[in-house]
Amino acid sequence: MKNPIRAALRRGETVTGLILFTGSPIITELAAAAGIDFVIIDMEHSALDLDRCAHIIRAADAAGITPFVRVPEADSNLILKLLNMGAAGIALSHATCENCAKALEAVRYAPEGSRGACAIVRSAGYAPGDWEAHVRQANDEMMVIPLIEDTATLEDFEAMAAMPGLEVFFIGPTDLSIALGVPHATFDEPKMAAALEKVVAAARKHGKYVMTTIGNKPDPVYGKSVRKRGVQAIVLGTDGHLFLDVCKRLNTVKQA
Questions:
Q1: Fewer CB atoms inside 10 A, N or C side of the chain?
Q2: pLDDT tens-digit series, residues 98-109
Q3: pTM here?
Q4: Which domains does the chain have, with CATH numbers?
């Protein structure tokens, strides 16, 4: 399958996404109907299992929205199953150069990687006619998206930005803000602003892209300011967080 997010970023476009905690295929379809470009199914913090991920990925494909999956570690067996379901790539929590290298190995077929080969899987179209063509396209289109959440990774980010095969870097503002000693700060806070500037500069130097979430401050003005600072992939938040925010705002009808 082609990866429309890669194509859009290379055209210089801004793309938006949503992190999924609820495991609802309907939420996935609603996100697509709202014009959101991708979803990230969260297998680090949520209780979602492989069977639920499969349903979400199918719903995403049917609705025309790109599905990624966030994994807690570079587990090659888990990654293989997710890719076989049709995930367009993985977001790797607490990324380092070492676990990124493992993830890149896991997402690619030989000779570029060690992904297990099986034609009777969804991502291969259930026995494709031209296996070699499938391998080439899969190796070209699959994305590994490192999450920048730790001070050590931030300090050594230049090395990660230079790694072949990595194209998009996801600044995880919640974990990174805690690591920087400014818990739950936005990118308006000086330490967070400096971190964003550093990642954007290094990514641009290597012809790559930056992703982050604005869910800790669901404000369109703030989101646009983050985009103007060089972020091309903007996650609006988690489905749970956004639903909670809307419910809280609407529930003010009870107030005098």
A1: C
A2: 999 999 999 999
A3: 0.95
A4: 4-254 (3.20.20.60)
